[in-house]
Amino acid sequence: MDDQTPSADAARAPTVSFVSLGCPKALVDSERIITRLRAEGYALARSHEGADLVVVNTCGFLDSAQAESLAAIGKALNENGKVIVTGCMGAEPETITAAYPGVLAVTGPQQYESVVAAVHRVVPPRHDPFLDLLPPEGIKLTPRHYAYLKISEGCNNRCSFCIIPKLRGDLVSRPAADVLREAERLVAAGVKELLVISQDTSAYGVDLKYAASAWKGGELRAKFLDLARALGELGVWVRLHYVYPYPHVDDVIPLMAEGKVLPYLDVPFQHASPDVLRRMRRPAAQEKTLERIARWRDICPDLTIRSTFIVGFPGETEGDFEVLLDWLDAAELDRVGCFRYEPVKGAVANELAPPVADAVKEERWHRLMRRQQAISARRLERKLGTRQQVIIDEACTRDGRRPGPGVGPTVAKGRSKADAPEIDGTVHVASRRPLRVGEIATVRIERADAYDLFGTAVGF
Ligand code: SF4
Fold first, then answer.
1. Ligand 1 in contact with 308 (CB < 6 A)?
2. pLDDT band at 132 (very low <50, low <70, confident <90, very high)
């Protein structure tokens, strides 16, 4: 992984090659570990070969993710030989040590102290006052203009298909002032978009009994609404991920209508059939979600709703699946991701009902994606002729050069307020004036397909 802050002394510093796998929450863990290592004078290596050590932050959510993690460990052992493993798979160290007895240490998720201590044992830190000087926002693995902001760890729910609570434990929320301090530091360092993440964002603060913490001469409660309002005062885009449709989420929608936080909700509904939801043991499964979505859109017509679904959950009948398709037609969600059910080892769901055949899962996956593609395309078509604010992620000239004065028109890729990085669509922007990464431009939308928008910059 590339280090953004090279130093003339880096050649003398002990070097660590870091592999970060998994979801944005794991990425935040990696950022914290790397920040700590950099603060202690370690440098990041560009490749495993020649590094003093490799750290692999693993993901264990699905069997396929575990296989990817094991392959990454194997590669690190081949190319370097000195390997420390951390992250979700570290909760079951025997799986790793059985496959790779040569791994030097295995630590679990969020055990920042243990992974850093393991690094110290293998390659002791070297004190260097220059390398100890860190940017105050820490080391970020995302581009400079957006950052993930993790507000809690763990989860109090017990969805039957998920082993995250086993791996990461119950909900532990950060005090609100702590989150706000990190957010302010990120904004001061140039971040234009904060992506709020956790396992269950709307449950924020439950474990703290919503206790207040001291913030700017007053007090701020550890409540979802209070936190969203305070983040909305920072003057940057604030995007909320992993929000469950609990009734109190309704209170945040007016903040979206006022433009304080982005009119965007990432709600993992997972299914619509009451029987499947019951077997999934989903939080808020009993809520009347279609009515709730309609109410949200009444308050905030620009609201974008993104969701994910699982097809082929054990016992899912053709009837259940059709309930889901009908629900999608009625809900008209903007963005949808879909997974074929995977029987993760240790998940209760595997025992609840007979498995669905792989061929049926596959066929349902294609039917769902086709159905949703038409809905997404219709929703995007409504944006034709509108002006959208677009944050620029990549920019170059038509012949691939870096944009700059006198080099001609720019073609850029960015995202509107309706698009989260990595998971949603792209806005392709033509511009007479060079666009810079991280800049927010006003774009007139001229064309749309099922996922992306195309337009021209008309304001900067
Ligand atoms: S809400 Fe459910 S799926 Fe999400 S982390 Fe918690 S238990 Fe897992």
1. no
2. very low
